[in-house]
Amino acid sequence: MSKVGIPKGMRDFSPEVMAKRNYIFDTIKRTFQLYGFEQIETPAMENRETLTGKYGEEGDRLIFSVLNSGDYLKKVEDVSLKNRNLENITPLVSEKALRYDLTVPFARYVVQHQNEITFPFKRFQIQPVWRADRPQKGRYREFYQCDADIIGSDSLLNEVELIKIFDEVLTNLGMQDFSIKMNNRKVLSGIAEVIGRPEKIVDITIAIDKLEKIGRDKVNEELLQKGLTNKEIEQIQPLFELKGDNKEVLQRLRNYLQNSEVGLEGIVEIEKILEVIGFWSLNKAKVEVDVTLARGLDYYTGAIFEVVSNEVKMGSICGGGRYADLTGIFGLPNLSGVGISFGADRIYDVMEELKLFPTKLSQGTQLFFVNFGHKEEAYVLPLLQKAREKGIRAEIYPEAAKMKKQMKYADQKNIPYVVVVGEEEMKSGRLSFKNMQSGEQEKVNFNELIERIS
RNA sequence: GUGGUUGUAGCUCAGCUGGUUAGAGCGCCUGAUUGUGGUUCAGGAGGUCGUCGGUUCGAAACCGAUCUUCCACCCCA
Prior knowledge:
Helices cover 41% and strands 18% of the residues. By secondary structure, it is of the alpha+beta class. The structure holds one RNA strand.
């Protein structure tokens, strides 16, 4: 076993894997562009303070900090080192951090470039993000997010367009059965309000979010542990029975939230979104109103989305939601945004499990020239150039190795056609042209050869 | 951050309650075929058993630490 390796939770991607990954990225990118989004990129690192405090306490722990260059202990007093007061020391030894998601860097970008941006601004961004989490199934320390956000518009039409993008991308990737779960932060606020503990909104929603996973009893247990009274827990119970079709769920929810202004507002938003989706047709997506869905509570203020495959057991493969004031923390208030994120790596795992990748993804070499040496190169290299000019992916073996070795190379790279040009072929102009799949070989001139391939 | 799990040849793995030169299949290299791959045949290379330390006459095997893998929790794409 060699000593080389890569950090925990991070991966290499070999050519076959990259072909599949690019298939996903290309599909997502094409759809984003089709809906009018423009691409940006931001640096792998942000200033640490740009990121900290944006993802909750848990999130801060998962941010990879980058050690300062040079004498990074310069600013640290010996006393604080001895006391191991990490909270104070970290900012002194690390001023940069790897981005944790694409949304916060995007908010920073918008604030920084506000004078160049025409609002509403529709951008997309496909880049890796890093989290210092323990790796496990569907969870990596480095993974790609593919985000599309609209910032500077309150309209719910944006939410609808994003739902449509979920549908279009995942359908195009071949998924047959997936659910776009939708909730609204205002509904969650309403629930906390109705049971009289608005300050407990986060604890309540995080607990009921686990309903499907751990069951009702455990959820209630957790609620009790978080300091809710039995009476309050009793009031939450009707929410666990809110299953069924969206209309029915909303009807009962409206009844439940009748005394909460904000809660009713959330319901109206959900209804509006559902109504407008109705103007379009969805392919394979099922839109489900789910009051137990609680995501990104640290910044979402309106709609909350999460997409799960119903065919494979995996965490959520996409997420998203509306944040009324994300740029406010960077000094640009009153800009409302809504965005979604595709988790490309999880989508990959789902597609792999469902065998959804097309077999013909490879953009490998189509035509291979055997190399016999300097004299032959003089004859063959111009032909190679011509083939490439015709758009044929072609290559020549870089040295005059044994033919067996060259053929083997072509075989292992799955190159479908091989040209052999030696003395005989140079004299006659009839090239030996071999079909590697059938094993057949014939003599053709160069133009015929090009026609055979294209 | 908590709990569990894994590590033997390039890959997938075997290796008995500790016993001498650690195995298989696949892959790789060479030749049969000095201008023909994928099939066949013959031969060959390749491992300080994750790392460090301990127990023992003796450790791949037992113990400890550490790293890595995978899984669950927390949280999340």
